[in-house]
Specification:
- GO terms for molecular function: DNA binding.
- There is one protein chain.
- By secondary structure, the chain is mainly α.
- The chain folds into 2 domains: about 55 residues, Arc Repressor Mutant, subunit A (Orthogonal Bundle); about 140 residues, Tetracycline Repressor, domain 2.
- The chain is built from 12 helices and no strands.
- Helix 1 crosses helix 2 and helix 1 packs across helix 4.
Amino acid sequence: MTEPDIRTRILLAAKTLFAKHGFDGTTVRQVCEEAGANVALVSYHFGGKENLFSALFDEFFPNVDDALEQYRDILAQPETGLALFIEQVMLFKLNDPDMGNILEQEILMHSPRLQAIQDRTFPIWSKLRDLMLDGRSQGKFHFQSIDTTLLLVLGSLLFHKRNYYFRPLLLEEPQPPEAAIAATVEYVYGALGAAHLVPERYRQRDAR
């Protein structure tokens, strides 16, 4: 096994265990047992458990600057940018549920690592806020309080999969990703008084 393979195995093991048991509920020894690595290698590659946690975001969290540049033209218009934003956040959580779970746990627990997470994620949430404000100033989105509306939208994006408590009330099977994204886009746009501005590609997804 080469050194990069060992480092990657440790990262993947940490992601799995942190998502399942939480940061505080996981020991370095457990991570190394899961990775099939010597305990000393965590210190060698990462300098300890806290740095290992930070390395997960270096490795698995999207580069915000690259993403904003990649979608610059779409994000320039609130009516297209907001839908894309919703899609990309939901795809991240659906494609990497372990990182999504870690993020949710840290937020809900108000953990000591929250500041480091805010440094990574707030540029994203700031862009969401700016899209909503731009849409309102252009007469496309309609809401009173940006703070209340932003928190409601963030709740829909970040915690829509946390339905185990309410599972006995739910009548349908979970939607496939494309349908869930389309439903969320239409829900958010409807709440903003902009149902008529839902981009066609999301309407088509919902219809399939």
